[in-house]
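Quick one, T. Sequence first:
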Amino acid sequence: MLGPQKPELFQMIRLGLAALAVVAVTACQPAFQVDAADPYATLYPWKADLEGVKTTESGLSYYVVARGPEDGPSPQPTDRVKVNYDGRFAADGKQFDESYSSEPATFRLNQVIAGWTEGLQLMKPGDQFMFNIPYDLAYGEMGRPPAIPAKSDLMFRVELLDVIQTWSLVTPWPTDSAKVTRTASGLEYLVVSSGDPSGATATTDDFVMVNYEGRLDDGEVFDSSFDRGRPATFPVGDLIPGWVEFLTLMKPGDHWMVRLPSDLAYGAEGNGRIPPNSPLTFEVELMGVAPASAVNAPPPQPVQ
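Structure tokens:
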């Protein structure tokens, strides 16, 4: 049988139960949420001490807003990426650039500011990050007048939509792969994707619209319509022998990686940035074919 209870004991029990109730309520509260449709609403101004914000050794800070599939590829500096983004000044939140109102941007990762090159390598397709980029990882002390003032820290919302890793398939060139086709001339190609097999095949009298990138064996890019942001239109018959050959094998919509021995390229003389006797590797997307009679007409339209 219990003896008389002391008031102090009841007070201690009440305090303990109250504390447990607070803990229980707190545990039921939702974690800090960022709206993926408008992460600036909660992350501007940048909150460096917010749980989940990480900062790299370079000073780049980021917050993971959403994650895509875990098994997706992370881009390498030489890969091209497709992204949607919204860029604003960290100082006042004013927007200076965005892609959401038009179409996603595609670019090679090592062709942009250092903060982007570093940050996007942390992402996979489907991920959405918010970045806070100090000016020394952006446009530096000079800025990029008039759009970006000097010493501007920047914030970006970035959605990584795709990683285009075509060059990783052919570096070094896989001559012995079963996926590589070799022609009698010594030209080799690997099909990345194919267009409509019933499409028109170019002749030496036609014009073609292509997106392309050419590299030397050391990885140097010597020409790229991708970097210029627009496809090129050429008369097939005026091109180097290797280009004439593979363009007359392709269909609109085809996407190939092509290896040319030097005798099908610029041979013993070379050409500008291309040293003598250099084999060349190209990424080529054939977007359209038009007859020579259309030389003064609008260029061939890209395949949709």
